Amino acid sequence: MSNYRVLREEEKIYGLGEKTGDMNRKGKSYVHWNTDHFAYGVDTDPLYSSIPFFIGVNHSGHYGIFVEAPGRSLFNFGASSHRLQYFTVEGKILDYYFIFGEHPLDILQNFSMLTGTLPLPPKWALGYQQSRYSYYPDYVVMDVAKTFRQKKIPADVIYLDIHYMDSNKAFTWDLVRFPDPTRLINDLKKLGFKVITILDPGIKNEKGYLPCDSGLKKDVFIKYPDGENYAANVWPGPCFFPDYSKDATRKWWRDLIAKWMRNGLGGLCNDMNEPASWGQTTPELVEMDFDGHPRAHNESRNVYGALMARASSEGMQKAFPDRRFFNLTRAAYAGSQRHAAVWTGDNVASAEYMMLGIRMVNSFSLSGISFAGFDMGGFFGESDAELYARWISLAAFTPLFRGHSIINSRSSEPWSFGEAVEDIARNYIGLRYRLMPYIYSCIYKATQDGTPFCRPLMIDFPQDEQVYDVRWQNQYLFGPSLLIIPAMTGQAFTEVYLPPGLWYDLYTSLQFPGGRTYIVPSPRDRLPVFVKGGSVLLMQSLTQNFSLDKRTSQVELHYYDGAITDFVFQWYDDDGISNAFKEGAYYLGNIQYNHKKNTLEIVPLHNQYPMGYRRLRLFINGLRKDAKTIYNKIGVRAPVQTYRFKEPVSNFDPLYQPIDYTDEVKDVLAFDLHFQQGRSYVWSLGSV
Ligand code: MIG
Predict the structure, then answer these.
(1) Angle (nearest 5°) at CA 682 between 677 and 688
(2) What is the band of 82 on the pLDDT scale with cuts at 50, 70, 90?
(3) How deeply is 559 buried, as exposed, middle or buried, from its count of CB atoms within 10 A (0-12, 13-18, 19+)?
């Protein structure tokens, strides 16, 4: 079945989740068929996830279309046609939703009402995550974790990839490499690390292997139409594939997961769930049950990974109902945000992929999935020092911040590329950790109404024709305040487009009027980042992790002047780990700017969680130093300060001389005040 529509000349198309190529999909056609494509190219299609939702932009308005097509589908946005765009789904039913909204953001929020929003992740999942295919044996894992602490590079998560398993079988340990998993996990916990294990859906066909025995007994596997279980080869050898569309299977899986989680794990990484198998072609006649309404593979494949992720996440909740976990999946479908974060699979270590990864994360954002990331540093192949430095700085501004690389490749931890790169990594990971009050508030917002965390410029500036220009397609906003400019390798300077309004260089607070382009320095230790005039950042002191480190007693509020209307930033916080926030144990406050009165306020709305901040430091950027009427409560003039978002890189390498861009905010007005979170605060920004 197909739907054909007119493609207008000026029309632009965004979305479809994990797709390669340019952000604007016009002139291209795409297939949805979840596929394990190792080391995919910058134009490969299809990949691991399918999200049949897109946003159309044209002069008369914007719209969204969600096609409920869990099977193979085809989307053509004017490829080989000057008139038409169309989509085609397999089978005799074509269900689609036309989603109206004034702007892309409204459309996305409406799409979220239909498919759901992400649950609030634990805070540690927003920290730095270190993965590798694979760290083993156990002492290597400990070594990596200890090195983070010794070098004072913040991190929260370490991964165990398939080498932890006994002969690659799910829910087992290789007891030679990992003789005492409980002890290892505990020792890591003492260092403030959460452990995530990778998990594949394929269950080895082997008598005496418990998941296989119980699975056969409970009849949980995918079948051929004649009733025989479908089997194919994956890592452990011949495997059956759980049919997660069946209630009985999900229950069986939840029990397996719950038991597995009691090893003390922080979460799971659902891999190979397209599903992938050697040969990479599942016969299209095998069926999934869908609770008594069987559907053939060609009409259901693309929900397989989503259903696995769902069952895994339910299993974690079952194990520890009052805790939050992190669930990551490779294959996803529309709505997967409710159950897991997503990563973009097996990318390649090159600058083009770094840029592609940014577009894919932003395209996920435009498709309901706010919590996404890529293998920082590149999975296949090897980064060099410059690429790694640029990649880790950039990844610090993506929701899922995770380094990962393939077996038999060079080490890719933040200290593996020499001391200068280590400094750069420490700077940007550190900045990420200091920004956590802002980041956590942004992700909270996504949980509430589907406002994406990372967003292409078209979300915040839909009326500006320039933002659709292919030249700026890699630029994006990280939350409402930060504009990130991904910089290519070899480019000491980068051309940027700043949308209308006033912008500030993050590191110096120098002002840049928007609505035009600039050429800005982008050496390897300086990712260009701008802050929107008329916004705030919330920051805290540096911590090494979110599990052990005590909360810092000071919170920083950075205000950037330049709003031409009112704005509100919602400040959210809670204990970061339990589900007590569902019973109301959280803090929510509005940080708001009133344009008419020219005031900045903090107004607590819900005050049921003590954040532990005793001091608030307010930095005011953009007002003239001699602004006369800026006083704090007790009438003390604000002193002028300097401030650093990152430290200079030491000059370790005689061949590479870091240029000193004097990256320091000079002359910023700063107030210190004793902070009582239950109170309101008003600052009059006065007349100058
Ligand atoms: O066939 O578990 O995308 O992240 O390291 C490869 C080994 C299987 C693919 C995943 C990758 C992971 C790897 N897995």
Answers:
(1) 145
(2) confident
(3) buried
Q: Tell me: pLDDT of 281 over 70.
A: yes
Give pLDDT tens digits for 129-153. Answer: 999 999 999 999 999 999 999 999 9
Answer yes or no: is the C-beta of 133 below 6 A from any ligand 1 atom. Answer: yes
CA of 134 from ligand 1 middle (Å) equals 9
**Residue 41: both structure tokens together:** 């190219």
Catalytic member of 271, 375, 386, 413: 271
Name the residue at shortest CA distance from atom 12 of ligand 1. Answer: 133
- Say yes or no: CB of residue 161 within 6 Å of ligand 1: yes
Each residue of 451-493: pLDDT tens digit?
Answer: 999 999 999 999 999 999 999 999 999 999 999 999 999 999 9
Residue 598 pLDDT exceeds 60? yes
pLDDT single digits (tens) 13-45: 999 999 999 999 999 999 999 999 999 999 999
Same fold across 123-200+246-450 and 455-532? no
Nearest to 153 by CA among 193, 125, 187: 193
Q: Are 546 and 127 in contact (CB under 8 A)?
A: yes
Banded pLDDT at 628 (limits 50, 70, 90):
very low
Cα gap 246→253, rounded to integer Å: 11
Question: Residue 673 and residue 670: Cα distance in Å, rounded?
Answer: 10
Kindly provide the residue ranges of all beta strands, DSSP E only, lying in 168-311, ordered along the sequence.
194-199, 203-204, 231-234, 237-240, 267-270, 287-288, 295-296
- Give, using CA atoms, the residue closest to atom 5 of ligand 1: 133
> How many helices and strands in the chain, by DSSP H and E?
11, 39
**What is the per-residue pLDDT for 497?**
98
Q: Ligand 1 pocket, 162 CB below 6 A?
A: yes
What's CA 261's distance to the chain center, in Å?
23
Q: Distance of CA 643 to CAs 479, 506, 507, 544, Å?
A: 22, 11, 9, 21
% of the chain beyond a pLDDT of 90? 90
Mean pLDDT, all residues of the chain? 95
Q: By C-alpha distance, which of 255, 48, 264 is closest to 160?
A: 264
The CATH number, out of the four listed (3.30.540.10, 2.60.40.1180, 1.10.10.10, 3.90.480.20), of the domain defined by the range 535-631+660-684: 2.60.40.1180
Q: How far apart are CA 553 and CA 544, in angstroms?
A: 15
Return the CATH number of the domain spanning residue range 2-115. 2.60.40.1760
271 lines ligand 1 (CB under 6 A): yes
- Identified catalytic residue from 11, 156, 299, 346: 346
Long-range contacts of 582-588 (CB under 8 A, 24+ apart): 584/608, 585/609, 587/611, 587/677
Q: Which tokens in the block code for residue 38? A: 């190792």
**Domain boundaries 123-200+246-450, corresponding CATH code:** 3.20.20.80
Q: Domain residues of the chain, as ranges?
A: 2-115, 123-200+246-450, 455-532, 535-631+660-684
pLDDT tens for each residue of 599-622: 999 999 999 999 999 999 999 999
Q: Is 274 a catalytic residue?
A: yes
Residue 633 has pLDDT above 70, yes or no: no
* Angle, helix 138-150 to helix 181-190, in steps of 10 degrees: 0
CA of 369 to the centre of ligand 1 (A): 21
Q: Which CATH class is domain 455-532?
A: mainly beta
346 has catalytic annotation = yes
d(CA 13, CA 55): 6
